[in-house]
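2024-03-11 09:14:02 INFO worker-7 job=invfold-0412 stage=load source=structure_tokens
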């Protein structure tokens, strides 16, 4: 594998696919290599689409009133790579026989409702953006991604990965990339890229917790729960509670996410380890959520959300600058107790706010 492969913000990190390409059987290897090749081009498309959406937003006056609800469209690529595919379900339509279509439809709606009810946000761009998703993308495509305009879901291979619509936290994770693009435009490289991934993990988990009404103590804090088949020795793609413990499998390898700056991974792969080092800010958020207690989206999540929106946050933000932004928002939004909890949460992973 190349040491300088550029990655797209997809659900399955490139280092996992590269391990499958090394350790899997012939079919698994071929599918992993095909997915890696597609993911490289998806990153270019995403950057282009995000730029066009930003330019369009700047030229379009904001809505005077919020939308009344999500505007969802689900397309079916039917095993091709054509986007958005054939429209098979639109807003208000009854469920159809295809469970993948219905899971995508419901996941978009659940994520929309989370951001609206928890933070008063009107869709991904806070301006009523219609939500589009395509299912059955590619042949055994082993990933899901946000391309700057829409969600795209592969069906997995059925051997290592189930269909990618099965995991609500993955859907929330990918749509949260759109929120980050809209608010902070965090560069997808090194620590700012790891923050980009971590923020998506945070809100992906909160979407699921919000739907279930779970407290921080009750939540599983997993990203990709249900995505791995029974043949894989693992429970998910990532764990915010215990980074580095989500899987340990002969084909996928072991989970190499660090939980502390002492173990920060310096690498040229994965855009500087964006899917790897995100374990550090993930653990910081988990620490804060547990310390504050209750429903994690109410205080910890609100602090992270407003830090993402803060004008002081730069596209090249580091862990330390984002930690400082969260401590500042904790003080502004709540008070001394929350500020102390946030500072201690970051200090526990080796980051000084």
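2024-03-11 09:14:09 INFO worker-7 stage=emit residues=353
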């Amino acid at each position: 594998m190349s040491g300088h492969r550029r990655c797209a913000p997809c659900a399955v990190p490139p280092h996992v696919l590269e391990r499958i390409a090394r350790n899997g059987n012939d079919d698994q290897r071929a599918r992993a290599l095909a997915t890696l090749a597609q993911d490289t081009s998806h990153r270019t498309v995403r950057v282009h689409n995000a730029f066009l959406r930003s330019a369009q937003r700047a030229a379009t006056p904001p809505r005077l009133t919020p939308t009344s609800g999500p505007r969802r469209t689900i397309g079916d690529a039917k095993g091709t790579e054509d986007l958005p595919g054939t429209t098979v379900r639109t807003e208000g339509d009854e469920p159809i026989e295809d469970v993948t279509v219905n899971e995508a439809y419901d996941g978009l709606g659940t994520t929309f409702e989370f951001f609206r009810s928890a933070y008063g946000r009107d869709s991904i761009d806070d301006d009523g953006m219609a939500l589009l998703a395509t299912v059955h993308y590619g042949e055994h495509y082993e990933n899901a991604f946000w391309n700057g305009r829409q969600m795209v879901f592969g069906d997995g291979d059925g051997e290592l990965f189930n269909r990618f619509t099965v995991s609500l936290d993955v859907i929330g994770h990918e749509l949260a990339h759109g929120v980050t693009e809209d608010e902070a435009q965090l560069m997808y490289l090194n620590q700012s890229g790891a923050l980009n991934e971590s923020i998506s993990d945070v809100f992906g988990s909160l979407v699921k917790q919000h739907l279930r009404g779970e407290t921080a103590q009750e939540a599983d804090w997993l990203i990709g729960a249900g995505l791995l088949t029974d043949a894989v020795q693992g429970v998910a793609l990532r764990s915010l509670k215990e980074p580095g413990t989500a899987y340990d499998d002969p084909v996928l390898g072991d989970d190499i996410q660090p939980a502390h700056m002492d173990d920060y991974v310096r690498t040229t792969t994965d855009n500087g380890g964006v899917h790897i080092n995100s374990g550090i800010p993930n653990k910081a958020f988990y620490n804060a959520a547990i310390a504050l207690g209750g429903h994690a989206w109410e205080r910890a999540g609100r602090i992270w959300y407003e830090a993402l929106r803060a004008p002081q946050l730069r596209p090249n933000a580091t862990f330390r600058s984002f930690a400082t932004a969260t401590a500042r928002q904790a003080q502004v939004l709540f008070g001394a107790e929350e500020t102390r909890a946030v500072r201690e949460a970051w200090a526990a992973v080796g980051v000084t706010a």
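2024-03-11 09:14:09 INFO worker-7 stage=report msg="Confidence is low (pLDDT under 50) at residues 1-6, 45-49."
2024-03-11 09:14:10 INFO worker-7 job finished
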